[in-house]
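May I ask you to review the protein record following this short note?
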Amino acid sequence: MQPKDTFFSQGDPADTVFYLQTGRAKLTVVSQTGKEATITLLAEGDFVGEESLASVPGLRLATASAVNSCSALKITRGEMSRVMHDEPEFADLFLKFMLARSMRTQADLVDQLFNSSEKRLARILLLMAEFAKPGERQTFIPPISQETLAEMIGTTRSRVSFFMNRFRTLGYINYNGRIQVNKSLLNVVLLDQLPDENTKQPVIPLTEVILGPVLPIVKKILKPVIPIVGNIRRKLAIAQKNG
């Protein structure tokens, strides 16, 4: 598929799933007033169109289109259901993908609610550069317009332009036709550290940065449970000592 080619369009019948084998793609939605917004980016190894597996098939809620040249495997609803029943390894792969997407969606929501637009832009650039994935990192991100970045983080193009120029001046990114993301963006921007403070701090994995805002909420939920667990551990220790 060539850039801007569509896998499916918003409003189409949801009857197939696509597995992205190479390249990048994106999901966009259009409001009733005609405003378009990019809601997520897709990379090699992602599934798209999984809503077609719902018990009652409906219509596509978004449009999936290619960002650059890519190839994808088209799987019908019936074939997908059969393979998931007959091939446990494939079912396990799909389940892991769905769990990862669920976590990413929750992290996106937290990011949108609690982080500044500058930090949201930094996070999107890091995710596009695949800093969260193991192995060799692709620091050059696919071609993407500032309008699309603005749609994804919920701000204006002028603000994105301002932040991009700021990132480049501080050495967090380079761009001359293509955008290259540098590792320094992890600490300095996402952790609100000044450049001189950044050199003293270790690089924190992106997964921790993404889930960071969620951790205080989890700790608050678990706070009443911690004393109970402590008491149980002490009683077990005493029982083992007496026994």
Strands lie at 6-8, 16-22, 25-30, 36-42, 47-48, 63-66, 71-76, 173-175, 179-181. The first helix runs from residue 77 to 86.
